[in-house]
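Side project, low priority. Logging it here so it doesn't get lost.
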Amino acid sequence: MHEFDLINKYFFHLSKKNPSSLNLNDDVFFDKSQKLVVSVDTYIQGKHFLNFNRPELVIKKILRSSISDLVCKGVYPKYYFISASGNKLNFTKLNLSKISKSLKEEQKKYKIFLSGGDTVNSNKLSFSITTVGKANSIVFRNKAKLNDDIYVTGNLGDSFIGLKVLQKKLFLNKSLSNYFIDKYYKPDLPYVFISSLNNIANTSMDISDGLFSDIEKLINKQKLSYEIDIDKIPISRNLLKILNLKKLKKENLISNGDDYQILFTADKRKNRIIQMLVKKLQIKITKIGNITNQSKMPGLILKKGRKIRVNQKGYYHQF
Protein backbone atom coordinates (compact mmCIF):
# COMPACT_ATOMS: atom_id res chain seq x y z
CA MET A 1 0.00 0.00 0.00
CA HIS A 2 1.32 3.46 -0.91
CA GLU A 3 1.99 5.72 2.09
CA PHE A 4 -0.66 8.25 0.98
CA ASP A 5 -3.27 5.50 0.63
CA LEU A 6 -2.40 4.28 4.12
CA ILE A 7 -2.68 7.78 5.59
CA ASN A 8 -5.97 8.54 3.83
CA LYS A 9 -7.56 5.23 4.73
CA TYR A 10 -6.56 4.89 8.37
CA PHE A 11 -5.44 8.24 9.79
CA PHE A 12 -6.90 11.19 7.86
CA HIS A 13 -10.23 11.01 9.72
CA LEU A 14 -8.40 11.34 13.03
CA SER A 15 -6.92 14.71 12.05
CA LYS A 16 -9.56 16.40 9.90
CA LYS A 17 -10.98 18.42 12.81
CA ASN A 18 -7.54 19.89 13.43
CA PRO A 19 -6.65 22.43 10.71
CA SER A 20 -3.07 22.61 11.99
CA SER A 21 -2.48 19.06 10.77
CA LEU A 22 -2.80 20.39 7.18
CA ASN A 23 -4.82 17.29 6.22
CA LEU A 24 -1.68 15.18 6.81
CA ASN A 25 -0.59 16.32 3.36
CA ASP A 26 2.40 18.51 4.14
CA ASP A 27 5.86 18.23 5.67
CA VAL A 28 4.87 19.86 8.95
CA PHE A 29 2.25 20.65 11.58
CA PHE A 30 1.48 24.39 11.69
CA ASP A 31 -0.53 26.06 14.45
CA LYS A 32 -0.85 29.64 13.23
CA SER A 33 -2.32 30.97 16.48
CA GLN A 34 0.65 29.66 18.45
CA LYS A 35 3.14 30.32 15.63
CA LEU A 36 4.26 26.72 16.10
CA VAL A 37 5.79 24.53 13.35
CA VAL A 38 6.69 20.88 13.99
CA SER A 39 8.06 18.03 11.88
CA VAL A 40 8.81 14.38 12.75
CA ASP A 41 11.12 11.97 10.90
CA THR A 42 12.35 8.42 11.50
CA TYR A 43 15.55 6.87 10.15
CA ILE A 44 16.34 3.14 10.09
CA GLN A 45 19.70 1.52 9.45
CA GLY A 46 19.78 -0.21 6.08
CA LYS A 47 16.93 1.95 4.81
CA HIS A 48 17.87 5.57 5.43
CA PHE A 49 21.58 5.11 6.11
CA LEU A 50 23.83 2.23 5.14
CA ASN A 51 25.54 1.39 8.40
CA PHE A 52 26.88 2.95 11.58
CA ASN A 53 30.57 2.82 10.75
CA ARG A 54 30.73 6.63 10.82
CA PRO A 55 28.27 7.64 13.57
CA GLU A 56 29.54 11.23 13.55
CA LEU A 57 28.47 11.54 9.90
CA VAL A 58 25.25 9.54 10.13
CA ILE A 59 23.96 11.85 12.85
CA LYS A 60 24.74 14.91 10.74
CA LYS A 61 22.86 13.44 7.80
CA ILE A 62 19.70 12.62 9.72
CA LEU A 63 19.65 15.90 11.63
CA ARG A 64 20.07 17.98 8.47
CA SER A 65 17.43 16.00 6.63
CA SER A 66 15.07 16.56 9.57
CA ILE A 67 15.49 20.33 9.84
CA SER A 68 15.16 20.47 6.05
CA ASP A 69 11.41 19.96 6.55
CA LEU A 70 11.23 23.35 8.24
CA VAL A 71 13.76 25.07 5.99
CA CYS A 72 11.65 24.29 2.91
CA LYS A 73 8.62 25.89 4.60
CA GLY A 74 10.46 29.17 5.13
CA VAL A 75 10.87 28.48 8.87
CA TYR A 76 14.01 28.65 11.00
CA PRO A 77 14.38 25.45 13.06
CA LYS A 78 14.94 26.24 16.72
CA TYR A 79 14.63 23.07 18.82
CA TYR A 80 15.03 19.37 18.16
CA PHE A 81 14.22 16.20 20.08
CA ILE A 82 16.00 12.96 19.30
CA SER A 83 15.00 9.41 20.18
CA ALA A 84 17.26 6.46 19.47
CA SER A 85 16.92 2.70 19.56
CA GLY A 86 20.02 0.51 19.54
CA ASN A 87 22.31 -1.53 21.73
CA LYS A 88 25.72 -1.39 23.40
CA LEU A 89 27.43 -2.34 20.12
CA ASN A 90 25.99 0.79 18.48
CA PHE A 91 26.24 3.16 21.40
CA THR A 92 29.75 2.60 22.69
CA LYS A 93 31.43 5.36 24.68
CA LEU A 94 33.49 6.25 21.60
CA ASN A 95 30.43 6.41 19.33
CA LEU A 96 28.43 8.45 21.82
CA SER A 97 31.34 10.88 22.12
CA LYS A 98 31.46 11.25 18.33
CA ILE A 99 27.69 11.77 18.13
CA SER A 100 27.80 14.40 20.88
CA LYS A 101 30.60 16.30 19.14
CA SER A 102 28.78 16.27 15.78
CA LEU A 103 25.51 17.46 17.32
CA LYS A 104 27.38 20.33 18.98
CA GLU A 105 28.81 21.32 15.58
CA GLU A 106 25.38 21.16 13.94
CA GLN A 107 23.80 23.19 16.72
CA LYS A 108 26.35 25.94 16.20
CA LYS A 109 25.96 25.85 12.42
CA TYR A 110 22.15 25.99 12.36
CA LYS A 111 21.49 27.76 15.69
CA ILE A 112 19.39 24.91 17.06
CA PHE A 113 19.19 23.33 20.51
CA LEU A 114 18.72 19.77 21.75
CA SER A 115 15.60 19.85 23.92
CA GLY A 116 14.78 16.26 24.85
CA GLY A 117 14.33 12.75 23.55
CA ASP A 118 14.38 9.09 24.52
CA THR A 119 16.57 5.98 24.29
CA VAL A 120 15.45 2.37 23.87
CA ASN A 121 17.51 -0.82 23.96
CA SER A 122 16.96 -2.73 20.72
CA ASN A 123 18.77 -4.91 18.21
CA LYS A 124 17.52 -2.57 15.47
CA LEU A 125 19.25 0.77 15.12
CA SER A 126 16.97 3.73 14.41
CA PHE A 127 16.56 7.43 15.17
CA SER A 128 13.48 9.65 15.35
CA ILE A 129 13.88 13.41 15.29
CA THR A 130 11.25 16.02 16.05
CA THR A 131 12.09 19.53 14.91
CA VAL A 132 10.33 22.65 16.18
CA GLY A 133 10.29 26.23 14.91
CA LYS A 134 8.27 29.42 15.36
CA ALA A 135 6.75 31.33 12.44
CA ASN A 136 3.86 33.61 11.53
CA SER A 137 3.39 31.86 8.20
CA ILE A 138 4.74 28.98 6.13
CA VAL A 139 4.85 28.02 2.46
CA PHE A 140 2.34 25.19 2.01
CA ARG A 141 2.15 22.28 -0.38
CA ASN A 142 -0.61 22.17 -3.00
CA LYS A 143 -0.66 25.93 -3.56
CA ALA A 144 0.90 26.00 -7.02
CA LYS A 145 -0.69 28.22 -9.67
CA LEU A 146 -1.15 27.49 -13.35
CA ASN A 147 1.87 28.78 -15.33
CA ASP A 148 4.05 29.09 -12.22
CA ASP A 149 7.77 28.64 -12.85
CA ILE A 150 9.36 25.65 -11.10
CA TYR A 151 12.67 26.19 -9.29
CA VAL A 152 15.21 24.19 -7.31
CA THR A 153 18.02 25.39 -5.09
CA GLY A 154 21.55 23.99 -5.24
CA ASN A 155 22.59 20.92 -7.23
CA LEU A 156 20.92 17.53 -7.54
CA GLY A 157 22.38 14.04 -7.77
CA ASP A 158 25.60 14.31 -5.75
CA SER A 159 24.22 12.42 -2.76
CA PHE A 160 23.12 9.50 -4.93
CA ILE A 161 26.62 9.16 -6.37
CA GLY A 162 28.00 9.23 -2.81
CA LEU A 163 25.67 6.37 -1.90
CA LYS A 164 26.82 4.32 -4.89
CA VAL A 165 30.46 4.88 -3.91
CA LEU A 166 29.74 3.74 -0.35
CA GLN A 167 27.92 0.68 -1.68
CA LYS A 168 30.97 -0.07 -3.83
CA LYS A 169 28.82 0.03 -6.94
CA LEU A 170 30.77 2.94 -8.41
CA PHE A 171 34.55 3.33 -8.29
CA LEU A 172 36.13 6.78 -8.53
CA ASN A 173 39.45 8.35 -7.63
CA LYS A 174 39.97 9.38 -4.01
CA SER A 175 39.26 13.06 -4.56
CA LEU A 176 35.94 12.49 -6.33
CA SER A 177 34.94 9.72 -3.91
CA ASN A 178 35.52 11.99 -0.93
CA TYR A 179 33.53 14.79 -2.56
CA PHE A 180 30.44 12.66 -3.22
CA ILE A 181 30.56 10.84 0.12
CA ASP A 182 30.71 14.22 1.83
CA LYS A 183 27.59 15.33 -0.08
CA TYR A 184 25.81 12.12 0.92
CA TYR A 185 26.47 12.60 4.63
CA LYS A 186 26.36 16.41 4.78
CA PRO A 187 23.76 17.86 2.39
CA ASP A 188 24.10 21.60 1.74
CA LEU A 189 20.87 23.00 3.17
CA PRO A 190 19.76 26.32 1.57
CA TYR A 191 19.59 27.91 5.03
CA VAL A 192 20.26 31.46 3.80
CA PHE A 193 17.12 31.31 1.65
CA ILE A 194 14.69 30.74 4.55
CA SER A 195 13.66 34.34 5.18
CA SER A 196 13.09 35.04 1.46
CA LEU A 197 11.02 31.97 0.63
CA ASN A 198 7.71 33.22 2.05
CA ASN A 199 7.81 36.32 -0.12
CA ILE A 200 8.51 34.42 -3.33
CA ALA A 201 7.11 30.89 -3.38
CA ASN A 202 3.51 29.86 -3.94
CA THR A 203 4.29 26.32 -2.80
CA SER A 204 7.38 24.39 -1.72
CA MET A 205 8.86 21.23 -0.22
CA ASP A 206 12.29 19.67 0.15
CA ILE A 207 13.65 17.13 -2.31
CA SER A 208 14.03 14.05 -0.15
CA ASP A 209 12.56 11.18 -2.18
CA GLY A 210 13.62 12.37 -5.65
CA LEU A 211 12.80 15.36 -7.86
CA PHE A 212 10.03 13.83 -9.96
CA SER A 213 8.25 11.95 -7.20
CA ASP A 214 8.46 15.04 -4.98
CA ILE A 215 7.03 17.41 -7.56
CA GLU A 216 4.11 15.01 -7.94
CA LYS A 217 3.62 15.18 -4.17
CA LEU A 218 3.89 18.96 -4.29
CA ILE A 219 0.80 19.23 -6.52
CA ASN A 220 -0.83 15.87 -5.73
CA LYS A 221 -4.32 17.18 -4.89
CA GLN A 222 -4.43 19.96 -7.44
CA LYS A 223 -5.76 19.67 -10.97
CA LEU A 224 -2.39 20.67 -12.36
CA SER A 225 0.60 19.05 -14.03
CA TYR A 226 4.18 20.01 -14.82
CA GLU A 227 6.80 20.25 -17.53
CA ILE A 228 10.46 19.77 -16.59
CA ASP A 229 13.49 20.30 -18.83
CA ILE A 230 16.20 17.76 -17.94
CA ASP A 231 18.87 19.96 -19.52
CA LYS A 232 18.10 22.76 -17.04
CA ILE A 233 18.31 20.66 -13.89
CA PRO A 234 21.42 21.87 -12.02
CA ILE A 235 24.26 19.47 -11.30
CA SER A 236 27.75 20.00 -9.91
CA ARG A 237 30.89 20.12 -12.03
CA ASN A 238 31.98 16.88 -10.41
CA LEU A 239 28.76 15.12 -11.36
CA LEU A 240 29.20 16.38 -14.92
CA LYS A 241 32.66 14.77 -14.89
CA ILE A 242 31.09 11.47 -13.84
CA LEU A 243 28.50 11.66 -16.61
CA ASN A 244 31.28 12.07 -19.16
CA LEU A 245 33.71 9.56 -17.63
CA LYS A 246 31.21 6.77 -17.09
CA LYS A 247 28.96 7.59 -20.05
CA LEU A 248 25.92 7.82 -17.76
CA LYS A 249 22.59 9.51 -18.44
CA LYS A 250 21.73 12.59 -16.42
CA GLU A 251 18.07 11.58 -16.11
CA ASN A 252 19.06 8.43 -14.21
CA LEU A 253 21.04 10.31 -11.56
CA ILE A 254 19.05 13.41 -10.59
CA SER A 255 15.88 11.92 -9.07
CA ASN A 256 17.04 9.38 -6.52
CA GLY A 257 16.50 11.36 -3.34
CA ASP A 258 18.56 12.64 -0.40
CA ASP A 259 19.26 16.00 -2.05
CA TYR A 260 17.46 18.12 0.58
CA GLN A 261 17.29 21.14 -1.67
CA ILE A 262 14.13 23.26 -1.94
CA LEU A 263 11.69 22.59 -4.75
CA PHE A 264 9.30 25.51 -5.18
CA THR A 265 7.03 27.29 -7.63
CA ALA A 266 6.66 31.02 -8.13
CA ASP A 267 4.78 33.46 -10.32
CA LYS A 268 6.70 34.36 -13.47
CA ARG A 269 6.78 37.97 -12.31
CA LYS A 270 9.01 36.93 -9.39
CA ASN A 271 11.86 35.83 -11.66
CA ARG A 272 13.68 39.16 -11.51
CA ILE A 273 13.49 39.22 -7.70
CA ILE A 274 14.79 35.65 -7.54
CA GLN A 275 17.77 36.54 -9.73
CA MET A 276 18.55 39.47 -7.43
CA LEU A 277 18.46 37.13 -4.43
CA VAL A 278 20.83 34.73 -6.17
CA LYS A 279 23.44 37.49 -6.28
CA LYS A 280 22.68 38.92 -2.86
CA LEU A 281 22.63 35.62 -0.97
CA GLN A 282 25.25 33.87 -3.10
CA ILE A 283 22.90 30.94 -3.56
CA LYS A 284 22.19 28.78 -6.59
CA ILE A 285 18.54 28.84 -7.70
CA THR A 286 17.59 27.39 -11.09
CA LYS A 287 14.35 27.53 -13.07
CA ILE A 288 13.76 24.02 -14.42
CA GLY A 289 10.20 24.07 -15.77
CA ASN A 290 6.67 25.26 -15.25
CA ILE A 291 3.26 24.24 -13.92
CA THR A 292 0.82 23.25 -16.65
CA ASN A 293 -2.82 22.26 -17.09
CA GLN A 294 -3.79 18.74 -16.03
CA SER A 295 -4.72 17.92 -19.61
CA LYS A 296 -1.00 17.25 -20.11
CA MET A 297 -0.94 14.55 -17.43
CA PRO A 298 1.23 12.74 -16.71
CA GLY A 299 3.93 15.35 -16.24
CA LEU A 300 6.16 16.04 -19.20
CA ILE A 301 9.90 15.49 -18.87
CA LEU A 302 11.80 16.96 -21.80
CA LYS A 303 15.33 16.53 -23.10
CA LYS A 304 16.48 18.74 -25.94
CA GLY A 305 12.84 19.63 -26.50
CA ARG A 306 11.64 16.02 -26.78
CA LYS A 307 9.60 14.05 -24.28
CA ILE A 308 11.58 11.26 -22.61
CA ARG A 309 10.75 8.46 -20.21
CA VAL A 310 12.46 8.39 -16.82
CA ASN A 311 12.49 4.98 -15.19
CA GLN A 312 13.59 6.24 -11.78
CA LYS A 313 11.27 9.02 -10.61
CA GLY A 314 12.29 8.67 -6.99
CA TYR A 315 11.45 6.77 -3.83
CA TYR A 316 7.89 5.83 -2.92
CA HIS A 317 7.11 4.48 0.55
CA GLN A 318 5.22 1.18 0.26
CA PHE A 319 3.67 -0.87 3.07
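Brief comment: The two ends are 5 Å apart (CA to CA).
Revisit when time allows.
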